[in-house]
Amino acid sequence: QVQLVESGGGLVQAGGSLRLSCAASGRSFSSSAMGWFRQAPGKEREFLATISWGGSSIYYADSVKGRFTISRDNAKNTVYLQMNSLKPEDTAVYYCAARRGTYYSPTYNPNDYDYWGQGTQVTVSS
Questions:
Q1: Is the confidence at residue 28, as pLDDT, over 80?
Q2: CA 26 to chain centre
Q3: Residue 119 and residue 40: Cα distance in Å, rounded?
């Protein structure tokens, strides 16, 4: 079992930066692939980035590639999403997620994730 709590969201001007954190509790965090997703009002949940258990495999959505960076610190049971050059269209609730299986591969499909945080709001003003 893994519990996830996101933090770091807020209001930022276009062009600014934020770093989201996702603190995990539970024994299997260090062996779990993790992902970041977001959901804007009236839209489906959107994949942003995913990272393998050891951090060696990372994938990004085209919409954030070059602007967002996912990383993890297994010693701190935390995964991060550094967001730079933010745009108004990045406004959404941001979620982190974890796969249940040990050493499962990272994936862009939200249905492959078993645990979700409560989300943190990111608002980018123009």
A1: no
A2: 18
A3: 12
